[in-house]
Amino acid sequence: xxxxxxxxxxxxxxxxxxxxxxxxxxxxxxxxxxxxxxxxxxxxxxxxxxxxxxxxxxxxxxxxxxxxxxxxxxxxxxxxxxxxxxxxxxxxxxxxxxxxxxxxxxxxxxxxxxxxxxxxxxxxxxxxxxxxxxxxxxxxxxxxxxxxxxxxxxxxxxxxxxxxxxxxxxxxxxxxxxxxxxxxxxxxxxxxxxxxxxxxxxxxxxxxxxxxxxxxxxxxxxxxxxxxxxxxxxxxxxxxxxxxxxxxxxxxxxxxxxxxxxxxxxxxxxxxxxxxxxxxxxxxxxxxxxxxxxxxxxxxxxxxxxxxxxxxxxxxxxxxxxxxxxxxxxxxxxxxxxxxxxxxxxxxxxxxxxxxxxxxxxxxxxxxxxxxxxxxxxxxxxxxxxxxxxxxxxxxxxxxxxxxxxxxxxxxxxxxxxxxxxxxxxxxxxxxxxxxxxxxxxxxxxxxxxxxxxxxxxxxxxxxxxxxxxxxxxxxxxxxxxxxxxxxxxxxxxxxxxxxxxxxxxxxxxxxxxxxxxxxxxxxxxxxxxxxxxxxxxxxxxxxxxxxxxxxxxx
Length: 555
Known about the structure:
Structural class: alpha+beta
């Protein structure tokens, strides 16, 4: 071998010790605290005096190599005892390359080099138990020798076995910038070249334009999707894919044979974030231009946007405000729900494509497709400005009640238009202004209750329409906490309790409502209808349970 620092197989696995010494093995990782290193000041790297470091020249940046990384260094090795030189890559004019933390070099090197930054130069004093121990490395290094190494870290390549089985091996060729990595469904822009084991080039974009692909899609083999999620913007990497993570037994017709290992040289140039605005995927946002700030609108904010709207795969149907902004109030139903939700997720200055499923674009509001046609709609939107409404804490008690009443009425209108999600959101905002009434006068507390009770009653109806009967029970109960004799609240809670199979409790609610309803024939008729529905549902449930138990015990 070229230099004496290289360990053979026996050295790499051998622990040097005496009866009273601590054994050091290569799978140990001494815990190090981050310290500000000072030139010409020695520090104890291993905390036991085994490896000491004196900085000669500071490196650049913040990164340091990790175990498994392929590092390139220049070094000069001398004996501490007499200063005689026993090895030097500088004299050979050939930098030394090894994998860090893999036992390819003496223990002291693995411990010392991992503390270095790119371009850094340092003098390491390495005790015998971190070097060649009691036997030394004849003829140049005697037994129990303390060694001094002047090491310069020229560069390193980060090597990652992403799957732990060698199926996807990624080597960083050029560091990227920032701390973010792209996520599933992001649109990534890449340059790449793919080759087979024999060097045959399969595809290359290096001489042309980069390509844009959707991360996680079938546009890329699974292994390359995985590797890209580990990369940073601007990073260049070598990615080697075994067949299972490339094109498998089938290969790629006319390009990649079956069971082929594929080598990629890939650069991640940029990406466009894609976010799920709603949990059901009905509203998605692709960020085309991200601002530096963090300010977002909220319910009640007045927003100013430029916008074009088109059917996905079709023509533009609204470009009246392509360049000149128009304004609307968030959550008031001035625009279709999908556009409202999409803009709510944006930051001031952000430019995005918001794609909405049909269910989020129905209606007559701005952004709805012409002629009521069905289909997904894509909005190209820039959020130009945001004017926030007054915060609740800045309002007087009277203003809080007035604001809550105004938002309640807007919620009622949204409900009548079938905008149930938006109605619930608006009612929630209304309640937020009057929930805390400790600083209200007695008269104001009464007004606040008069505002909250109909909101809870309406929310109970809305909950059931949205298939959330448990929420309806909760909201009806809150209305009863304000007025325990509310026939509407009892009636609506009873209905919701049928929906969740709480039949006995539902009947109790209907019986009490019937007692309180008095001579109102219409209300009494509605209550009786629900009582019959409840009893019928109860009978069906009991019959079902009886049938189930008979099968269980009949075996």
